Structure formats: C-alpha cells, structure tokens
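Posting this for the archive.
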Amino acid sequence: MAENDLLEVDVFEVDELDREVRIDPNGRISLSLIGSVQASKKTISQLETDIERAYGEKYLQNPEVSVFVKESAGQRVTVDGAIQKPGIYPVSSTSSLLQVVAQAGGFKEIADTTKLYVFRDFDGEKLVANYNVKEIRNGKKADPRIFGGDVIVSFSSGSKIAMRGLREALGLAGSATRLAVF
C-alpha cells in the first residue's frame, strides 16, 4: 500500500470503528481510539495485524480486523502528449499499453505512433522504453504490460504537423482564390 491509497477498515462486530481512510503523505492512517497507524509499504495482512494488536492492547478482546483497498494510487497511470484524452487512468494487473491508449481515446491525428514512450520507476531508478505501436498492432512486437505508476507519453510527428499545416494553408488559399474569382 502507498500514499493516497483509500482503505476500508472493518472491525468485526464493532460498527462504530469501521472507517474509510486515506493513507497520508507520511504513510499513516488515523483510526478511532488508537490514532495514527503506519500503513504504507505494508501488506494488507501486516496492517490488519497491527490494527488488531493496537485495539487489543486497550480496547477490545480478540479483535478481528479486515482491510480492503478501495482505491489504489499505485493502480493508475498517467497518459500525456498527442493523445485524445490525456489524463490519469486506472489499470489492472493485466493492462497492456494498447488498452491504456484506447482508454485515453487513442492517438491524435498528429501523433507519431512509432514513438510512444513508457517511463517507469524501478527500485529508485527511472527507466524509459520506446514502443512502436504499428509493430505491436501488426503482431511484430508484443503488447507490453503496463504497471501502476507508469507514465505514457505520445510525441507529435513533425511531418504530420507540417502536412496538417499545409492542408490548412491550401484550404485557406483555395477559398481565397474562389473569393477573388467572384
């Protein structure tokens, strides 16, 4: 679990202690009676045990606690650049690059689909990989798995921007010529 994850804490048969809590920037959650509990970088089982121990020390006899991750900041990716709907999107454990691009509405007309970059933090190191979507779509390359926290950036194609500008210029020039002939 990580900062900004939204957790549901359920204390069996003590509804007054049930809470939805978000992990704060210090990696902690705050619960009734026991106060602040370290939550980030722990498994669900570890956090349940810590909460049970804290409630059991002073307040409850043999408490049973269940923790559910309702929303995980680590299960989202950022999609930016020459994409129809840049933004932050949820991913699952099986999400692929093309699925995430589709979630974001696909590429803009000016996108260079041979230059789609995935930035990933791995053990404190920033990694970057370039993917050619044409090769993935043609089956020449595998559709890579995307992980929570990845940043996907699609760059514009200089030649596509130039062609669009030329089409627009010709369209304006053509209409101006027609007006002049009139």
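The chain has two domains: 6-71, 75-161. Residues 111 and 156 are 4 Å apart (CA to CA).
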